[in-house]
Every structure is written in structure tokens, then in C-alpha cells.
Design a protein that fits this description.
It is built from no helices and nine strands. The protein is mainly β and about 100 residues long. It has one domain: Sandwich (Immunoglobulin-like). The strands form two sheets. Strands 1, 3, 4, 7, 8 and 9 form a six-stranded mixed β-sheet that branches. The chain has a three-stranded antiparallel β-sheet with strand order 2-6-5, with no helix packed on it.
């Protein structure tokens, strides 16, 4: 991922899950920099894309630092599959490397 910023809302998280989750439920789970975990409902792409996404809203990325995201799919038959974690750093607006 490119540089992203705390409180940025013009951003969509997209994760490739490698399986068709149509008919099931897809979540993007996260761990914030302070260790709090949670999840957001995700939108599924076309079944051939095997991707899920979440457009960020105000207040969702409320801390700077490294966030960890992973997919979590519950398929129509009730089986579940957590995805591989991906880390993304979020900077404070005006940050200069």
C-alpha cells in the first residue's frame, strides 16, 4: 500500500482472499496500533476477482501507527477462513519522511 494517513476517508481497503465468498459473509478484521481488535463488514467483488473491500469512514482509522488487516470469510456452508495479515502504516497529516 502507498502512504496513508490517520483520519483519511478517501481510501478503500481491498484484500484478495483467493476464494469465492458469494453466498457467505466477508469481514475485514483489524488490530489498531494500541492493540484493539475489531472488524468491519466487507463488500465482495465479482466471484472471479476473489477480493473483498471496505471504504473507510470518518473515525475508523483514528490512530497513527501500524495497523494490521486480514480477511475473514464465512462461507454458505458455515466453514470459515481467516486470511493472511497485512500491515499498513498510517501517518499524521503533514508527515515528512
Amino acid at each position: 500500500m502507498a502512504v496513508a494517513f490517520k483520519d483519511q476517508t478517501a481510501l478503500t481497503l481491498t484484500l484478495t482472499i483467493g476464494q469465492d465468498v458469494s453466498g457467505g459473509v466477508a469481514l475485514i478484521k483489524y488490530q489498531s496500533p494500541d492493540g484493539v481488535t475489531g472488524s468491519w463488514a466487507a463488500t465482495t467483488g465479482a466471484s472471479t476477482e476473489y477480493q473483498i473491500s471496505k471504504a473507510l469512514s470518518t473515525g475508523q482509522i483514528d490512530q497513527d501507527g501500524t495497523w494490521v488487516f486480514w480477511s475473514y470469510a464465512t462461507f454458505a456452508d458455515g466453514t470459515v477462513a481467516p486470511g493472511e495479515p497485512v500491515a499498513q502504516a498510517f501517518k499524521v497529516e503533514g508527515y515528512t519522511p
